[in-house]
Amino acid sequence: MALTKFNFNSFDLTSAASKGLAFNSSANGFETSSAGAMTHIKTLTASASSTLSFVDGSSSVVLDNTYPVYLFKFINLHPSADQSDFSFNASVDSGSNYNVTKTSTLFYLYHRGSDAANTFQYDTNRDLAQSSSDKKITFNANVDSYSSGNGLLYLFNPSSTTFVKHFLAVTNEDSQTSGEQGLSQQVFAGGYLNTTSAVDAIKFNYSSGNIDAGTIKLYGIKDS
Amino acid sequence: MALSKVNFNSINVTPAASKAIKFNSSNNGLETGDLGGSLVLLSTQTASSSANIDFTSNIDSTYKEYIFRYTNVHPATDNVQFGFQVDTGTNTSYGQTVTSTFFRAVHSEADDSTGLARVASEDQQKGTGSQTLAYGVGNDNDQCASGVLHLFDPSASTYYKHFIGRGESITASDQAYDSFVGGMFYQTSALTRVRFKMSSGNIDSGTIKMYGVS
């Protein structure tokens, strides 16, 4: 009788629950192997998009208690409107309303390309104190063709019904903060979504105009 | 003779060290690959009295973000900066134009100094030098630097190339020195290679790993 299927215990190694099958480091035998702790969930690509939204349970998005930490990555975000601010907001009703109360900080550095002008300061105009407004994580974006914003946003334990939800962001962009092109600006933003309801959706947009182009990726990070 | 176990070389795929066995993208055969984590290890380099550590392959359009993790990077020379530069194609000058920002938090072991400040000496204004990632690294036996560098979409043909990094060093003055760096290379051509080096002397030892983020 021809062999048609290999069973789980047909391979020359000790099986291990929920592990994969891999060659060993010498490529002369088998071993069990695990996937990485960071799991890609969803990629959204902007095309003259007014907003990009990640809603739990919609379009294969997971934003619940599956992961204790979620990580958004921003790659080559390009605005349609000059000097607009890239921001996010959160929802506790599956995206019907993006208006969660936030308290947050923001500080930034920039360095101009044309001369040595620079700054390093806390920004009281772009932090929030118990506000439901969008939280800025870049600002004064440059609309020139070569300009973009890139960075990371961590969101911690959004599904908690006990605690507020903390977030941390760091971004770098080509900005027009001092009214010129070719300025490298790094922004650090942190804070918390002041709600004990589970956050189940996050929306991104510019303060004016569209997200002309760019990619936002969502990852879940395991805790074990 | 009864078949009792399938051996590693009984599968219709060429064995590759530490790689898993997966179905191929056409679902009509097997191939080796990683098991599905989004952080894919592409290369590991270990310094051994190395003037430079160069990553010259696997930087392409496969990934939108590359992460470099440097661990226990130990300089041959005391009180030096650990930094990086990039280049295009097969070029080897590693002198792309960059504007960057740099600030640090610092605290001495003696608890007699602390600080938070921008560091003008380590940022660049359309400079072409090595961009500092970790500052003032000491070369005592127990001193080193470790940290991370994110390089975004190096193969993009439209945009300047952005990076952010954070590095922790033990300085020659016995301080914990936490470096934060961000910047962009004024280059719309694809970046294909990254070089790490000390501002003076060799990288005596240490490991740098390059990951692609899928």
Give a concise summary.
Chain A is built from no helices and 15 strands.
Give an account of the 3D structure.
The complex is a heterodimer of chains A (224) and B (214). Chain A has 224 residues and is mainly beta. Helices cover 0% and strands 49% of the residues of chain A. Chain A has one domain: Jelly Rolls (Sandwich). The model of chain A has no long low-confidence stretch (mean pLDDT 91). Chain B is built from no helices and 14 strands. Chain B has strands at residues 20-23, 30-33, 39-50, 52-55, 65-75, 80-88, 98-108, 114-118, 131-137, 145-152, 161-170, 175-185, 191-198, 203-213. Chain B has an 8-stranded antiparallel beta sheet with strand order 3-14-5-10-11-12-7-8, with no helix packed on it. A 4-stranded antiparallel beta sheet of chain B has the order 4-13-6-9, with no helix packed on it. Chain B has a two-stranded antiparallel sheet with strand order 1-2. In chain B, a hairpin with an 8-residue loop joins β10 and β11 (161-170).
**Main sheet specs of chain A:** 9 strands, antiparallel
Radius of gyration of chain A: 22 Å
Q: What portion of residues of chain B is helical?
A: under 10%
Oligomer: heterodimer
Secondary-structure element order of chain A, N to C: EEEEEEEEEEEEEEE
Class of chain A, according to the CATH hierarchy? Mainly Beta
Q: Distance N terminus to C terminus of chain A? A: 44 Å
Helices of chain A, by number, come to 0
Give me the Rg of chain B, rounded.
20 Å
What is the strand tally of chain A? 15
Shape of chain B: globular
- Number of spatially distinct domains of chain A: 1
Low-confidence stretches of chain B: none
> What's the helix count of chain B?
0
Give the rounded overall mean pLDDT of chain A.
91
| Structural class category of chain B | mainly beta
Q: Find the structural class of chain A using helix and strand composition.
A: mainly beta
Overall shape of chain A: globular
User: How many strands in all of chain B?
Assistant: 14
